[in-house]
């Protein structure tokens, strides 16, 4: 029998993504966000939910753009820092030893060291209680060569993305390969 845990944010796991923006002064900033995910396939879109109190919230509203940067396990410490400090008070890129790169497609930077980047143009904003959900149309995906397989597709084992456990507030790596999607269940 299942035990009720109440109404909580316990979808497990959630991505640990760094959302990067330029602030009003043009300073690059990034914050770690776990309330995020893909939300549409045509057009390709991603949604990130941020509190209005965050520095990044105002930047997305003003610039109408953001990038989603997927850290590899090798950068979990730097990614965590992006979620601890505020861009109002710190140069997070400098402190974390990360490199901002100006996107040529949207008015936002991306993080050079993180192996996967989604460049997004703000498509829609939805107010949901404490958070604002920003829906961004993905205008390009950039990936380091070393996270691609022989066919040019993303390889989870090479990417080694970080995921967040909202109940425990721990970071995890991605586990073993279980089977091919839209295939493994065909023999049932």
TrEMBL record:
Domain Flavin reductase like, first and last residues per copy: 9-155
Segment forming the signal sequence: 1-18
Gene Ontology molecular function terms on file: FMN binding; oxidoreductase activity, acting on the CH-NH group of donors, NAD or NADP as acceptor
Coiled-coil portions: none
UniProtKB keywords: Flavoprotein, Signal
Cofactor requirement: FMN
UniProt similarity note: Belongs to the flavoredoxin family.
Protein name: Flavin reductase (DIM6/NTAB) family NADH-FMN oxidoreductase RutF
